[in-house]
Amino acid sequence: MDRLRAFEVFATVVARGGFAKAADALNTSPANVTRYVNELETYLGSRLLNRTSRRLSLTEAGEALYERAQTILEEVAEAEALASATTLKPRGRLRVNAPLSFGIRHLAPLWPRFMAQYPDVLLDIALTDRVVDMVEEGFDLGIRISRGGSPTYAARKLATSRNVLCAAPDYLARQGVPRTPDCLANHVRVAYSYTGVPEDWVLLDPEGKPVTVRVPIRLVTNNGDTARAAALAGQGIIWQPTFLIGDDLRAGRLVPVLPDHRIPDIDILAVYPSRRHVSAKVRALIDFLADAFHGTPAWECRA
After folding, report:
1. How many domains does the chain have?
2. Could you tell me one molecular function GO term of this UniProt entry (predicted)?
3. The CATH number of the domain where 228 resides is what?
């Protein structure tokens, strides 16, 4: 049994949530996927997955192995990349998917530098806030804004962005400054639809305990810049990342609301379909972006 391949198959089954989906991602048959998982369970002497006709779940042994398998696969990918870096030159079309607002504000200024550094790479950039299936739609690399990592793809963290509850000064002058979370019930918010537009907001109090508040919705949008524009025009309170509103906070166009209550940070990730056999052009872009966002991100810098 190829144990490394078995680890990869097992990790893909868990990430994709099923044997058939894992087979599609690995370009093999469901029978092969089942064989690898069965052989791995036999080799380890432990059941890793509970299987029913409707759902798949990890056993305790499976949870422990999944965490370790991800680390092993990442280490192997890094080693392979280092081994091939001296012999492979980045070249060819490189299809990149990124969120609209982040792509315009923080990625667009970087592309000319990358193009100058890698003249044999043809960049193909697609901006959308919709989460795409990278394999199905043929993307080599994607930029994701995520709070929980990437359960489906390999990922490398590039930066962190704070989430801030804020509003325009004139809105707060008209409606009053909320002093406690309960006060938000008397305000309106501009909601971002890709978060699912939940009825409630969950904030963390100064001790880190969750506080649930319900804020009436004034506007729903699937684009952060639209939410920002509405907030700047005094139409409600928004919850947006500092990579989008950092300049507004520094300039005082937007001011924090309930600054002693926190919203969990989000990560900026470079994601790619597989940890193994990462191409030179993808590896070059990941390293380039990691270097570009190294240290304190520009959106967190103080005036």
Report:
1. 3
2. DNA-binding transcription factor activity
3. 3.40.190.10
* Same domain assignment for residues 52 and 35: yes
For residue 158, give the nearest of 1, 232, 285, 267 by alpha carbon: 267
Domain boundary among 43, 72, 101: 72
Q: Per the domain annotation, does 84 fall within a domain?
A: no
CA atoms of 63 and 59, how far apart (whole Å): 6
Domain co-membership, 119 together with 260: no
255-256 and 154-167 as β-strands: parallel, antiparallel, unpaired? antiparallel
Q: Which amino acid is at 250?
A: R
Q: What does the longest C-alpha to C-alpha distance in the chain come to?
A: 69
- Residues 27-67: tens digit of each pLDDT: 888 888 888 888 888 888 888 888 776 778 888 888 888 88
What string of H, E and C letters represents the secondary structure of 50-87? EECCCCEEECHHHHHHHHHHHHHHHHHHHHHHHHHHCC
Range of the domain at 18: 3-72
Q: What three-state secondary structure class fits 140?
A: coil
pTM exceeds 0.70 for this model: no
CATH number where 58 lies: 1.10.10.10
The pLDDT assigned to 124 comes to 95
Q: Would you mind telling me the total number of residues written for the chain in this entry?
A: 303
Helix (H, G, I), strand (E, B) or coil at 272: strand
User: Which of 298, 202, 303 shows the shortest CA–CA distance to 258?
Assistant: 202
> How far is the C-alpha of 95 from the C-alpha of 137, rounded, in Å?
10
| C-alpha atoms less than 13 angstroms from C-alpha of 301 in its C-beta half-sphere | 8
Both 8 and 126 in one domain: the answer is no
Per residue in 237-283, pLDDT tens?
999 999 999 999 999 999 999 999 988 899 999 999 876 668 889 99
SS3 label, residue 252: coil
Tokens of 192: 């971002």
